[in-house]
């Protein structure tokens, strides 16, 4: 199989790339690379009414950001292009005509009003889900019910028509899914799918089958929502006399509160839904790769941290779960923290510096290179080096509500004593170990624990009740600023 594996990621440019689409792309990519195969990007833009300007660019930028290189696509075509379906329109028409000639498809001239009337009529007679199928087609206006010369005349006069697939009435369509095993559908549950619309554009179903065949796609790996369309595709492969690709339908991504992770649900649960959101919120791409890989797949052991290269070696379709995978947002944060900690300060500095500039801060590199290691164990996202660490650059203007709970009646007295002690230190003595010794002296003199002094000291210096290791923080902020901030806090909070 290796080397002959060709997979495609085939998004529609109808909006920004959704996180579920990114996972589909990732599974295709991991599978292709693990078999020395080819990862194809195909833009399925046949539905021109839903086309969104900039969506294709967003898809390409998202794949690039996360580290998936496209082997063949609109930017770097191979020899089976074009790679946009809107540029392949003539190809589909010929194949649709072939099905009509073979008797596997037909011309239908029904107007939208006539289709609505048919549905209303069937609903009244007790059919809750009426469709254009083997039974209803015989009472409609199509090339199966109209005299041949009338069909010819309508075509010659340029009357609007669609081409529909002639689905057999009583047949079982059975195929093997690489994730679900054998799946079967009764053809009586399927409608006569429109293959070519009245504007001459193919529907997803026809374009998909023709393109997968012509592009020599060996494995179709896509979301579970396409499972019910697969029998129609299998019928077309049979009618064309083509070998179908292997198919694998990925489990749904579920919301933490249950049910499918829809856009609405994601918004209400504070989960970013588009890849662009993750780029803008400055997530580590490695964290998202690792998280998405485990969203419906596992290597079968307890390991959780893997680079893209390791995932390529480990990934296999037989370890993809059938059931839905819950989008565990805290887990993504955990991954993000891990990958941030792994990165050296030198690598993080340019990004942190850029964020600092956005916040109107122009940090000294040497100073920043000391802050980064100190903050690393405390931050979940790269911008928190600045948003959480802003006190390294300016005195706190206010104090966090929950931090003020740490301020008690004797806080001012303890802090005053601490100021007396550190004021006597020379600038070169103002370092973490000495500052810690001075804390011990004060708490021993007052016979209290570390908390009663450390907590208000942190609040005074940073305005927050949490943060990086305290005495190295004081050392970095320096003697003058530390004393000034403590005195301000005593004055403001008493």
Automatic annotation (TrEMBL):
UniProt key word Lipid metabolism: no
Principal location: cytoplasm
CC terms in the record's Gene Ontology section: cytoplasm
EC number: 6.1.1.17
Domain spans labelled Aminoacyl-tRNA synthetase class I anticodon-binding: 356-490
Keyword rRNA-binding: no
BP GO terms, sorted: glutamyl-tRNA aminoacylation
Sequence motif 'HIGH' region, location on chain: 11-21
Places the protein is found: Cytoplasm
Broad class of enzyme this protein falls into: ligase
Annotated ranges, domain Glutamyl/glutaminyl-tRNA synthetase class Ib catalytic: 4-334
Chain residues that bind ATP: 263
Keywords linked to the UniProt accession: Aminoacyl-tRNA synthetase, ATP-binding, Cytoplasm, Ligase, Nucleotide-binding, Protein biosynthesis
InterPro entries given in the database record: aa-tRNA-synth_I_cd-bd, aa-tRNA-synth_I_codon-bd_sub2, aa-tRNA-synth_I_CS, aa_tRNA-synth_I_cd-bd_sf, Glu-tRNA-ligase_bac/mito, Glu/Gln-tRNA-synth, Glu/Gln-tRNA-synth_Ib_cat-dom, GluQ/Sye
Motif 'KMSKS' region positions after renumbering to this chain: 260-264
Domain of life: Bacteria
Pfam family membership, one: Anticodon_2
Signal sequence, start to end: none
Record field: catalytic activity: tRNA(Glu) + L-glutamate + ATP = L-glutamyl-tRNA(Glu) + AMP + diphosphate
Similarity section: Belongs to the class-I aminoacyl-tRNA synthetase family. Glutamate--tRNA ligase type 1 subfamily.
Function: Catalyzes the attachment of glutamate to tRNA(Glu) in a two-step reaction: glutamate is first activated by ATP to form Glu-AMP and then transferred to the acceptor end of tRNA(Glu).
PANTHER family: GLUTAMATE--TRNA LIGASE, GLUTAMATE--TRNA LIGASE, MITOCHONDRIAL-RELATED
Protein's name according to its UniProt entry: Glutamate--tRNA ligase
Species, as recorded: Fodinibius salinus
Gene encoding the protein: gltX
């Amino acid at each position: 199989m290796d080397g002959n594996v060709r997979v495609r990621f085939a998004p529609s440019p109808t909006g920004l790339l959704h996180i579920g689409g990114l996972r589909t792309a990732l599974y295709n990519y991991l599978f292709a690379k693990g078999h020395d195969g080819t990862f194809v990007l195909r833009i399925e833009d046949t539905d021109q009414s839903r086309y969104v300007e900039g969506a294709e660019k967003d898809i390409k930028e998202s794949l690039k950001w996360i580290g998936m290189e496209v082997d063949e696509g609109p930017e770097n075509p191979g020899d089976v292009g074009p790679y946009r379906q809107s540029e392949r329109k003539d190809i589909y028409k010929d194949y649709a005509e072939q099905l009509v000639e073979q008797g596997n498809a037909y011309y239908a001239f029904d107007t939208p009003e006539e289709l609505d009337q048919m549905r209303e009529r069937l609903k009244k007679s007790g059919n809750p889900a009426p469709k254009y199928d083997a039974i209803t087609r015989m009472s409609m206006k199509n090339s199966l019910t109209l005299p041949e010369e009338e069909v010819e005349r309508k075509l010659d006069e340029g009357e609007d028509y669609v081409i529909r697939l002639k689905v057999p009435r009583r047949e079982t369509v059975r195929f093997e899914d690489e994730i679900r095993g054998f799946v079967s559908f009764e053809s009586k549950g399927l409608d006569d799918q429109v293959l070519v619309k009245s504007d001459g554009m193919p529907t997803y179903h026809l374009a998909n089958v023709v393109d997968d065949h012509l592009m020599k796609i060996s494995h179709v790996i896509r979301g579970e929502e396409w499972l019910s369309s697969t029998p129609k595709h299998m019928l077309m492969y049979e009618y064309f006399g083509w070998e179908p690709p292997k198919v694998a339908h990925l489990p749904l991504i579920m919301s933490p509160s249950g049910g499918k992770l829809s856009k609405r649900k994601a918004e209400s649960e504070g989960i970013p839904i588009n890849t662009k959101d993750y780029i803008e919120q400055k997530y580590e791409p490695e964290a998202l790769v690792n998280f998405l890989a485990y969203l419906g797949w596992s290597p079968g052991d307890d390991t959780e941290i893997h680079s893209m290269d390791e995932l390529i070696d480990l990934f296999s379709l037989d370890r993809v779960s059938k059931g839905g995978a819950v989008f565990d947002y805290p887990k993504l944060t955990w991954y993000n923290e891990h990958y941030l900690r792994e990165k050296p300060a030198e690598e993080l500095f340019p990004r942190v510096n850029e964020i600092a500039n956005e916040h109107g801060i122009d940090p000294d590199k040497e100073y920043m290179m000391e802050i980064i290691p100190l903050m690393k164990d405390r931050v979940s996202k790269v911008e928190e080096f600045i948003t959480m660490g802003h006190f390294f650059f300016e005195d706190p203007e206010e104090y966090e509500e929950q931090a003020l709970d740490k301020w008690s009646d004797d806080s001012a007295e303890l802090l005053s004593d601490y100021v007396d002690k550190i004021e006597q230190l020379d600038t070169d003595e103002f370092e973490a170990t000495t500052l810690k010794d001075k804390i011990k002296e004060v708490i021993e003199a007052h016979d209290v624990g570390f908390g009663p002094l450390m907590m208000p000291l942190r609040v005074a210096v940073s305005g927050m009740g949490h943060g990086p290791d305290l005495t190295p923080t004081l050392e970095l902020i320096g003697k003058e600023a530390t004393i000034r901030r403590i005195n301000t806090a005593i004055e403001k909070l008493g």
